[in-house]
Design a protein that fits this description.
The protein is of the alpha/beta class. The protein has 3 domains: 1-153, no CATH class; 154-228, no CATH class; 233-369, Roll (CBS-domain). It is 53% helix and 14% strand. The chain has helices at residues 19-67, 94-119, 137-152, 160-173, 175-197, 202-228, 233-236, 250-259, 280-289, 317-321, 341-353, and strands at residues 4-10, 13-18, 75-79, 82-86, 242-245, 264-268, 274-279, 306-308, 326-329, 335-339, 368-369. Strands 1-2-3-4 form a 4-stranded mixed sheet. Strands 7-6-5-11 form a 4-stranded mixed sheet. The protein starts with a strand and ends with a strand.
């Protein structure tokens, strides 16, 4: 995620902080300082940091459980609304999704239990008295962990309870329909939060927007996965595209840009292996920074995402949903075509109209090299 700073890693998963989280800490510290001076500011910031440490542990509960099923999570990002674990894929079996979803809230309950054993009886109402310095920080932290577990178990996307609901429903009605039900509940919950936010709590409005968008995104992701099921990358790729050779000049790249309506241009080397991408903005930047006869290679975005044409396009979904173009290659690594979010959307439309539609093989068509 852009505007994120890496603060460490654990077992191959990087932990990042989004700059908006740092702004949140600054705002909380400033507000507390105005009310009670430096000590109040310090205590408020420490409490928020402690909560987000618990959030990170919550996310690692999901991540380490998912790893048992071969699912890797390269990064966790801390946002003002909580933590987001970037899993490379979701489990196919309902039981696996159920255990992964429950692992996060279970971590919060374990933290709360340990704090209660250490402190003795804890009043859950202490958890909402964040700015009250008379309440012990650990007591508030125990209560907040109970709240986090309960909130996350609400049976609505994007909360963990929504995934628990989907996993349970998937056993009887299938993943697609189960996802739509959980997403609709999530969007209904978002409207409820937004309505409550109108009565003096703007933070609820912010959370409501996030919940609504995340629920809709989950439903769309599942629809994409269903449309992609059983479809090979070579049969779904775009082949009537302009491709730029790495040895081309800036002028040649500009000529290609003017001749097409493409947004992304694959760049290949002399062996037709994909070496990167050029966007329209990259080409304009090259025109601004270099002479027309200069090579275009320095402006190529390196390390392109690729998928073997024989693979199912399920493997490319995480990259496609983030808006990234994916190059399709043959068994020798030569460029065959391109997968984009638009091409996947077109597949979804066709599948929606004709679920039994069979796509014709396209690996015999080669993209145009300019």
């Amino acid at each position: 995620m852009r505007w994120s700073l890496t603060i460490g890693s654990f077992k191959g998963t990087a932990v990042r902080i989004h700059v908006t989280f740092l702004l949140l800490l600054g705002w909380i510290g400033f507000a507390a300082y105005q009310r009670g001076g430096a000590v109040a500011a310090r205590d408020s910031i420490l409490f928020i940091v402690a909560i987000f440490v618990c959030v990170v542990l919550h996310e690692f509960g999901h991540i380490l459980t998912a790893r048992r099923y071969g699912i890797v999570s390269p990064v966790i990002t801390l946002l003002p609304i909580g933590g987001v674990a970037d899993m490379e894929r979701m489990p196919d079996k309902p039981r696996q999704e159920l255990l992964i979803a429950l692992a996060g809230p279970a971590v919060n309950l374990v933290i709360a239990a340990l704090l209660i054993l250490f402190l003795g009886a804890v009043d859950v109402s202490d958890g909402i008295q964040i700015s009250d310095p008379s309440v012990n920080l650990l007591k508030r932290l125990a209560a907040v962990n109970i709240f986090l577990a309960a909130f996350n178990l609400i049976p609505a996307f994007p909360m963990d309870g929504g995934r628990v609901l989907r996993a349970a429903l998937s056993i009887w009605i299938g993943k697609g329909r189960a996802t739509r039900i959980a997403a609709q509940i999530g969007q209904g919950f978002a409207f409820l939060l937004g309505f409550l936010g109108l009565f003096g709590n703007p933070l609820l409005l912010f959370i409501a927007i996030f919940v609504y968008i995340a629920a809709a995104g989950e439903a769309q992701m599942t629809s994409m996965s269903e449309a992609a099921r059983g479809l090979k990358a070579a049969d779904a790729m775009e082949t009537r595209i302009a491709v730029i050779e790495r040895s081309s000049s800036v002028r040649e790249a500009v000529d290609i840009l003017l001749a097409t309506s493409q947004d992304e241009f694959p760049v290949v080397d002399a062996s037709r292996r994909l070496s990167g991408f050029l966007s329209r903005a990259n080409i304009i930047e090259a025109l601004r920074a270099a002479e027309p006869g200069a090579p275009i290679a320095p402006f190529v975005r390196q390390e392109p995402a690729t998928i073997d044409g024989r693979e199912n396009i399920d493997a490319a979904l995480p990259m496609l949903t983030s808006g990234e173009a994916v190059g399709v290659t043959d068994e020798e690594g030569r460029f065959l075509g391109l997968l984009t979010r638009q091409s996947l959307a077109e597949i979804m439309m066709i599948k929606d109209v004709r679920p039994d539609w069979r796509f014709s093989p396209r690996d015999d068509r080669r993209p145009t090299v300019a």
